[in-house]
Automatic annotation (TrEMBL):
tRNA synthetases class I (E and Q) anti-codon binding domain segment(s): 462-538
UniProt domain Glutamyl/glutaminyl-tRNA synthetase class Ib catalytic: residue ranges: 33-341
Protein's UniProt name: Glutamine--tRNA ligase
Record field: transmembrane: none
Length: 563
């Protein structure tokens, strides 16, 4: 993790420089402390990772603490399953908060007391307007709002009504508590914002203790103050909320209050991170759950085979951004390729098998050939691969009528088998009904065994293969971008937006047994399938009878070239 922190000290990190300048004035009598405040109503995604890393690294840069605090003030959408998933994902990502895991709902009494204090100071009132009327009274960006007819209720009346709200005497949405600020403010967030609402629902943590719940903009600064947060770091869309954050702390008389500072919001091309949109994709059956490898959720990226190091490297590569910033998804793939290129073993996998019988190879013979695991990293060693009379090659590696520049196998043509021999195609067998090529009859030249010298002979093409007798049968999932480049995410209609080739399933692929001979480690190991890309085992769909591999990324960025 130390390498991640170095970026935080670089001269181009505006947030680090901003905070460094402020800390020179010694505004706090406490250590640096930041927090990440997710709502437990969904799963973390790649954008969440950017916010987490920003908060975590700023805290570490100034030798401070990092808090994980759940903003669990809406019982209608929250679930303990999301809480557990978020904790697990943050730890997997490498930003373990340790003992500093907190829940906003644990501060319910303090937040309620703060609301009562505001009422007592004449700074909050109970309003009977409907949600639609509240919105109407707020005005627009060009027109000021107008006061609620309930704005001038007395302190005593507001205290009594708020107590009845807490007791459960009123129906949901029939009343709210609003801060009394300025309905004519050019900042919409200061036009008497709602700070408490009535919700009659059981909370996953507090049960039925409460039927009134604070709004995030009110609870957030109070929670920060209770925990001793020094910097509330949030994305730039919350900049207009900062005056309300500061108003709450000021009106409550908080000394040495935390400071809200904003950083840029990260957007990624071809990726949807909105929880609402993600939920539509999941519930509409367009994807295989929240951990679908095509989704930008951390659980999806993890199942696909991305490593925490590659995600951290991606965020580090982006650096510190001030405003809205859009990054091409290919950068994330690039960061993973750079990590896997020299650290993964290569194996031969035939995704579209074509049977090849080597007619002059002995029927009862099988030999072991030695092949390097990674041509760029000798430390990964070598492995033994079985070779026998019948093998499989890729169907695409044979052409009955080869185009110009085709350097693989064709009738009367010769090609080298990776780590093995030269073979020549002598006969093509076809299905009598369809005309499809079903088998090739080839001969091999024993003198061309890899590593023994070829008598000066050369061929232009080398192809991979697997022994039919020894191969492991598996399904292989090839992933592409979930959404088409032209997708209109705002419409909420996903039928025409989802890329029909975002998942291609190759059934009955043939893979050399080395890919499955690693015991339990197989579930975490990444492999390179020669010419196909980087793969890992899909834990969700692999069974005792059938391995399923996910392609993490292809060897080269094909998506960027297509668009």
């Amino acid at each position: 993790m130390e390498s991640d922190n170095k970026k935080e000290h670089s001269n181009d990190n505006f947030l680090f420089k901003l905070i460094s300048g402020e800390l020179e004035q010694a505004p706090f009598a406490r250590d640096m402390c930041t927090r990440f405040p997710p709502e437990p109503n969904g799963y973390l995604h790649i954008g969440s990772a950017y916010a987490i890393q920003t908060n975590y690294n700023i805290a570490r840069s100034f030798k401070g603490k990092f808090h994980l605090r759940f903003d669990d003030t809406n019982p209608l959408k929250e679930d303990i399953a999301y809480v557990n998933a978020i904790i697990e994902d943050i730890k997997w990502l490498g930003y373990d908060p340790g003992e500093h895991i907190y829940y906003g709902s644990d501060y319910s009494d303090e937040i309620h007391s703060a609301a009562v204090r505001l009422i007592g100071h004449g700074k909050a009132y109970v309003c009977d307007l409907t949600p639609e009327e509240v919105s109407e009274y707020r005005g627009t960006l060009t027109q000021p709002g107008k006061n609620s007819p309930y704005r001038e209720r007395t302190v005593e009346e507001n205290l009594a009504l708020f107590a009845k709200m807490k007791k459960g005497d009123f129906a949901a949405s029939s009343k709210v508590l609003r801060a009394k600020i300025d309905m004519g403010s050019p900042n919409m967030n200061l036009r008497d914002p709602v700070i408490y609402r009535i919700i009659h629902a059981e909370h996953y943590r507090t049960g039925e203790d409460w039927c009134i719940y604070p709004m995030y903009d009110f609870a957030h600064p109070i929670q920060d103050s209770i925990e001793g947060i020094t910097y509330s770091l949030c994305s730039v869309e919350f900049k207009d909320h900062r005056p309300l954050y500061e108003w709450v702390l000021r009106e409550l008389g908080i000394e040495s209050p935390p400071r809200q500072r904003e950083f840029g919001r990260l957007s990624i091309t071809g990726v949807v991170t909105s929880k609402r949109f993600l939920r539509q994709l999941v519930e509409g059956g367009f994807v295989d759950g929240w951990d679908d490898p095509r989704l930008p959720t951390l659980r999806g990226l993890r199942r696909r085979g991305f490593t925490p190091e590659s995600i951290r490297g991606f965020i580090k590569e982006i650096g510190s951004i001030r405003t809205q910033s859009t990054v091409h998804i290919s950068l994330l793939d690039h960061c993973l390729r750079q990590e896997l290129k020299a650290s993964t073993a290569s194996v031969m996998a035939v995704l579209k098998p074509l049977k090849v019988v080597i007619t002059n190879y002995p029927d009862d013979r099988a030999e072991l050939l030695t092949i390097e695991n990674n041509s760029e990293n000798e430390e990964l060693g070598k492995r033994e691969v079985s070779f026998a009379k019948t093998i499989y090659i890729e169907r695409d590696d044979f052409a009955e009528h080869p185009p110009k520049g085709f350097h693989r196998l064709s009738p009367n043509g010769e090609v080298r088998l990776k780590g093995a021999y030269y073979i020549r195609c002598e006969e093509v067998i076809k299905d009598s009904d369809t005309g499809e090529v079903t088998e090739l009859r080839c001969t091999y030249d024993p003198i061309t065994k890899s590593g023994t010298g070829f008598n000066g002979r050369k061929v232009k093409g080398t192809i991979h293969w697997v022994s039919a007798e020894h191969a492991v049968k598996a399904n292989v999932h090839l992933y592409d971008r979930l959404l088409l480049e032209s997708a209109d995410t705002a419409s909420g209609s996903w039928t025409d937006a989802v890329n029909p080739e975002s998942l291609v399933i190759m059934k009955d692929a043939m893979i050399e047994p080395f890919a499955a001979e690693c015991g339990e480690d197989c579930l975490e190991r990444r492999l390179q399938f020669l010419r196909h890309g980087y793969f890992c085992i899909d834990k969700k769909h692999t069974t005792a009878d059938r391995l399923v591999f996910n392609r993490i990324v292809p060897l080269k960025d094909s998506w960027n070239k297509k668009n």
